[in-house]
Design brief:
- The chain is built from nine helices and 14 strands.
- It is of the alpha+beta class.
- The strands form three sheets. The protein has a ten-stranded mixed sheet, with helices on both faces. The protein has a two-stranded parallel sheet with strand order 1-9. A two-stranded parallel ribbon has the order 4-14.
- The chain has one domain: L-fuculose-1-phosphate Aldolase.
- α3 (110-130) runs parallel beside α7 (288-310), α4 runs parallel beside α6 and α7 (288-310) crosses α9.
- The longest helix is centred in the C-terminal third of the chain and has 23 residues, at 288-310.
- α6 (251-262) links the parallel β11 (238-241) and β12 (273-276).
- 34% of the residues lie in helices and 13% in strands.
C-alpha cells in the first residue's frame, strides 16, 4: 500500500516520555501584507497601524485564542538576562484590534473548510521548497479533514514540493488506506502523522521535513534557548525525542512522537515542536498556517543558536519570567497563524496554479 520513504522515548524541558517518566516571515515590519478574506479563500492586503512587535502583545483572554504556554528547558547559556515584563493597555488594545481585523476564518460548510485547508496545505509545500527546506522525497505536511476527522490530507510520495497542487493531495484514513487520490502514500508520513493526529485531537496539522539546520541541531540532543524574541516562541513548548531507530516505518515510533506532543508540563497549553534526535524537528498546530510557521521559525532558531555558539563569545539567555512573558506574545496559536499569512499571500500571487 505504501511507497518506500524516509523517517523514527521523549524528553522535553526536564521531562521524559516513554520510560518510567511517563507543534520571521510576516512578523518583521510595519504594515505587512497578510492573506485571508472573510471567506478565507482569496488573499487581501491589510495595513496595520502598529508594528509587529506590538500586534501580538499580551495574553488575550477574550477571544477564541485563549492561550497559555508551557515547561522549562534546560538553560545552557552562559549568562542570564533578568528583567520584569512591561504591561500596557496600549499593547492589549493593539492585540484586540489586530485580532478583530485579522483572524482565521470560520466555516459553516465543511466542503468550504476542506477547500481552505487544502489550499493552505498545497501552498505550504511550495513555501518550504522556496525556502530550501526540502531533501529529495523526504518530508510531509498533513491536515485533518474537517468532516471525516479520522482522516487527513497529505502529499503523495515523490511529488516535488515545488510543484504541489491542491489536486495532487491524498486523503488517507487512520489505517493508511487512500480514500481520495491515486498515488502512493509516503510510509513515514503515515507512521508519524497518523499517530500525531490520533494522540492529539486538538491538533489539525503537522509538519516535518529534513531541513539544513534542524537536522544538525537534532544531533545535539538539546532544546533551543530563549536568546531572542523569536526563540521565546518555543519557550516551554519544546520536547526532545530520543532513540533514533532509522527510517520511521513503525507506527510505534509514531506513537512515541505523538505522545510527546500530547505531553503537558508546567503552564503548557500545547507542545508546538518535537526534536527527534538525529532526525530533525516536527511541528503541530490548530491550523496548517500555524504548524508550518512554527516549522519555519524553529528552523531559523536552530540556525541562530548554532551561529551564536560558533562565535565562542559569552551570550545572554533570558530568564524564565521574561521568556514566559515573551512567549505569551510570540508563541500563541494566533501568533503562529498570523506569521504564516505573508508567506501565503506571496506564494499564491506568484504561483496561483498551486490552487488547481
Amino acid at each position: 500500500m505504501f511507497g518506500q520513504t524516509e523517517d523514527a522515548p521523549i524528553e522535553g524541558g526536564q521531562c521524559v516520555v516513554g520510560g518510567d517518566d511517563a507543534d520571521l516571515g510576516g512578523l518583521d515590519g510595519h504594515g505587512s501584507p497578510f492573506a485571508g478574506g472573510a471567506d478565507g479563500a482569496s488573499p487581501i492586503t491589510v495595513e496595520i497601524g502598529c508594528c509587529a512587535d506590538h500586534i501580538l502583545m499580551l495574553r488575550y483572554e477574550t477571544s477564541r485564542f485563549n492561550i497559555s504556554q508551557s515547561a522549562d528547558p534546560t538553560h545552557r547559556g552562559r549568562g542570564f538576562m533578568s528583567s520584569h515584563p512591561p504591561m500596557s493597555t496600549q499593547e492589549s488594545s493593539a492585540v484586540a484590534e489586530t485580532m478583530e481585523r485579522l483572524s482565521p476564518p470560520e466555516f459553516a460548510d465543511p466542503s468550504q473548510e476542506r477547500r481552505h485547508r487544502q489550499e493552505r496545505l498545497a501552498a505550504s509545500f511550495r513555501i518550504l521548497a522556496r525556502l530550501g527546506l526540502t531533501t529529495g522525497i523526504t518530508g510531509h505536511i498533513t491536515v485533518r479533514d474537517p468532516e471525516h476527522t479520522d482522516c487527513f490530507w497529505v502529499n503523495p510520495l515523490a511529488v516535488p514540493f515545488s510543484a504541489m497542487r491542491v489536486s495532487d493531495l491524498l486523503l488517507v484514513d487512520e489505517h493508511g488506506t487512500v480514500i481520495e487520490g491515486d498515488r502512493m502514500v509516503n510510509a513515514a508520513a503515515f507512521a508519524i502523522h497518523s499517530r500525531i493526529h490520533r494522540h492529539n485531537p486538538g491538533v489539525n496539522a503537522a509538519c516535518h521535513s529534513h531541513s539544513p539546520w534542524g537536522r544538525p541541531w537534532s544531533a545535539t540532543g538539546r532544546l533551543v534557548e530563549p536568546t531572542s524574541q523569536d526563540a521565546c516562541a518555543f519557550f516551554e513548548s519544546q520536547r526532545l525525542a530520543r532513540g533514533f531507530e532509522g527510517v520511521v516505518f513503525d507506527t510505534e515510533v509514531g506513537d512515541t512522537l505523538g505522545a510527546a506532543f500530547a505531553e503537558h508540563a508546567g503552564n503548557a497549553e500545547r507542545i508546538n515542536v518535537v526534536v527527534h534526535e538525529n532526525h530533525g524537528h516536527m511541528t503541530v498546530g490548530g491550523t496548517v498556517d500555524e504548524a508550518v510557521f512554527w516549522f519555519i521559525l524553529f528552523e531559523q532558531m536552530c540556525q541562530a543558536q548554532m551561529r551564536l555558539e560558533s562565535t565562542g563569545w559569552p551570550y545572554s539567555v533570558l530568564d524564565t519570567e521574561m521568556a514566559r512573558h515573551t512567549n505569551r506574545q510570540t508563541g500563541t496559536p494566533y501568533a503562529g497563524w498570523l506569521g504564516f499569512q505573508s508567506y501565503f499571500t506571496e506564494i499564491t500571487r506568484e504561483q496561483p496554479e498551486l490552487l488547481d
